[in-house]
Amino acid sequence: xxxxxxxxxxxxxxxxxxxxxxxxxxxxxxxxxxxxxxxxxxxxxxxxxxxxxxxxxxxxxxxxxxxxxxxxxxxxxxxxxxxxxxxxxxxxxxxxxxxxxxxxxxxxxxxxxxxxxxxxxxxxxxxxxxxxxxxxxxxxxxxxxxxxxxxxxxxxxxxxxxxxxxxxxxxxxxxxxxxxxxxxxxxxxxxxxxxxxxxxxxxxxxxxxxxxxxxxxxxxxxxxxxxxxxxxxxxxxxxxxxxxxxxxxxxxxxxxxxxxxxxxxxxxxxxxxxxxxxxxxxxxxxxxxxxxxxxxxxxxxxxxxxxxxxxxxxxxxxxxxxxxxxxxxxxxxxxxxxxxxxxxxxxxxxxxxxxxxxxxxxxxxxxxxxxxxxxxxxxxxxxxxxxxxxxxxxxxxxxxxxxxxxxxxxxxxxxxxxxxxxxxxxxxxxxxxxxxxxxxxxxxxxxxxxxxxxxxxxxxxxxxxxxxxxxxxxxxxxxxxxxxxxxxxxxxxx
Length: 494
Prior knowledge:
CATH topology of the largest domain: Chloramphenicol Acetyltransferase
Number of helices: 14
Shape: elongated
């Protein structure tokens, strides 16, 4: 057997949610073939097969939350288990212990954030008992909740390693099920039956179906929070704990809603990415002494320069010349003069960065992410445009790695692409500055005693007032304005 475990998820990321399994037990898999997809609060991670063989058991089902290095599945190398299922089944009947070659470990499930150990309170099965997949084996108690441990596969409980009363760690092995591969095929149709009885097109989690069947609750009446509306174990437990629909609404901290309005509402669980965005932005407001200063820039010269050279630029560099490279260059220029905007606070120290890793905020279907253009201060216009195009595409496809979103020293956010005329961007901690770009709009301007129409853009700099004074913030914006209104200054470092 080869274990399939959760890969390294990135700096500061300790858990993920199993989003989709592309294979099911009994399927043949090739080396590096995608087995499943994990979702963290920042990125989506694909898990490839480490060996060729047969997927004998899935330990972490869709919707389960797993930690780094947790066991996801097991693969029988070379497909030996799939080639001879009948003898294995026979061994289960006559001598359960002899089926150890098809043994599946029963591990302590995810206990929750900051919970590292639990106590085995009750075993519902004894050694030698036959168990079905997802049948409850034992119950664990932590200092916060009780956790039921289902059988990861059908077979015979051949060994109990943690008896009642024993304290186990979060990654401990509780028991071993023998003959798992041979008998796993039998209960599969039964697990699918409850889901088929509903009107949904997706199959609910087997553990959820078991709970609902025991309580006599129709799966179709339960709102699922899993992928594509799949009913997970947590949904089933909530449904059994509070069968009356009005009860949760009455306890929810929100204004009263009429019955007519409630029937037209839709409640959708926030994605992990959206939860992280909400938490980080609120933490930013609570931590930094955030202030915003504004200015405006006449985009005439930049637009003229872009129009003059965009075709030649595209022909030579293979990428379009946009406005972001001009703004990136202008910010790099300004950060050299006002280095505190490119710094961060670490305890009682101010850490000045002698480099610029520019974060470029990008909107995606699942939320805002900020890929980082490293060493932007050493890049050409073409290099910047290529990097922004490449990372923007990866962001929209959900393919950014954790490393590509870490280490930024300053951020640019372009709300103008959505039509925003004025806004106050929120800091991306631990950074001390973020520049907000906005819509370019023709406005009448007084220039040399005459009123002329010019393409104007409002600029907003949000900054951490703990280390950036008002003078520094205004100077930064003025330097950005000067560089954009006369791009030749960038060439001469003025």
